[in-house]
Write a structure and sequence with these properties.
The protein is 40% helix and 21% strand. It is α/β, with parallel strands linked by helices. It has two domains: 118 residues, 3-Layer(aba) Sandwich (Rossmann fold), CATH 3.40.50; 95 residues, Orthogonal Bundle (Arc Repressor Mutant, subunit A), CATH 1.10.10.10. It starts with a strand and ends in a 6-residue tail after the last strand. The relative contact order is 0.12.
Length: 226
C-alpha cells in the first residue's frame, strides 16, 4: 500500500514515514503543500496523511483541490488545533479522518490501516480467499492453517492483490501502489514477485489462487469467484 505524508516538521515527518515503511507501506514524503497536491493528483495513494499548516499551501487548500479534481484517496488531516470548527471544516471539505497533535504512533497507524481497508471496501482486518487467510494487522499469512513466511515486498504484493481479489490488476497498477517515488525498480519486478508468491502460496496446493490474464495482469481469487 502506498501512502503520501505531507508534514513540514522534519523530525515528526521522518518518524511517521519511517514507522509506516517499517510496517510495509511505500511512503512518499514532502514538506510542501504544492508538492503534495501535485503528487496527490498524479499517484493513486491508498492514504494521504496531510498536515494542515504547510508553508506554501495550507492543507485545507490541498484537500479542497484534490476533492475538486475527483481524487478519492482517503485523507487524514493532522493538526495542533483541536477546535470543533476546524474538525467540521476538514470533514466538510472531504477529509476522512482528523488527528490532533500530539498523538500516539499506535493510533495513527491504526487509523491509516482503517482508511486503507475502507478505501478498498473492507472493514475487517482479515481477508480470506478460499483457504488463504491474510491478517493485515499482524501482517501474517496462512494457507490451510499453515503459516507462510513472506518477505516485506512479497507480503505487500499479496495484500494488494487480496484487497482487489477477484479483479484483474495490471502491472502498472501494482507498481503505482507498491513503490514510492524514490524506489528504483526494473521493468519485470512485478512478474518476478508474482513468481515468488506462486511458489509460496500455490506450489503445494492443487487449487491455485493466483492467476495470470495475458496482456492484462494478475488476480487473486478462489475458483469460481471471477
Amino acid at each position: 500500500m502506498r501512502v503520501l505524508v505531507a508534514e513540514d516538521h522534519g523530525p515528526l515527518a521522518r518518524s511517521i514515514a519511517n514507522g509506516l515503511r517499517e510496517e510495509g507501506f511505500a511512503v512518499d514524503l514532502t514538506a510542501s503543500g504544492e508538492e503534495a497536491l501535485t503528487w496527490g493528483i498524479k499517484s493513486p495513494y491508498d492514504c494521504v496523511v496531510l498536515d494542515i499548516m504547510l508553508p506554501d499551501r495550507e492543507g485545507w487548500s490541498v484537500l479542497e483541490h484534490l476533492r475538486e479534481r475527483g481524487i478519492r484517496s482517503p485523507i487524514m488531516l493532522l493538526t495542533a488545533r483541536d477546535a470543533v470548527e476546524d474538525r467540521v471544516r476538514g470533514l466538510n471539505l472531504g477529509a476522512d479522518d482528523y488527528l490532533v497533535k500530539p498523538f500516539a504512533w499506535e493510533e495513527l497507524l491504526a487509523r491509516v490501516r482503517a482508511l486503507v481497508r475502507r478505501a478498498h471496501g473492507r472493514e475487517a482486518s482479515t481477508i480470506k480467499v478460499a483457504d488463504l487467510e491474510i491478517d493485515t494487522t499482524a501482517k501474517s499469512v496462512r494457507r490451510a492453517g499453515k503459516q507462510i513466511v513472506l518477505s516485506a515486498r512479497e507480503y505487500a504484493l499479496l495484500e494488494y492483490l487480496a484487497h482487489r481479489k477477484g479483479t484483474v490488476v495490471s502491472r502498472s497498477e501494482i507498481s503505482a501502489h507498491l513503490y514510492d517515488n524514490i524506489d528504483q525498480t526494473v521493468s519485470n519486478v512485478v512478474d518476478v514477485y508474482i513468481g515468488y508468491l506462486r511458489n509460496k502460496i500455490d506450489r503445494d496446493h492443487p487449487v491455485k489462487l493466483i492467476y495470470t490474464r495475458r496482456g492484462l495482469g494478475y488476480l487473486l481469487m478462489a475458483p469460481g469467484e471471477e
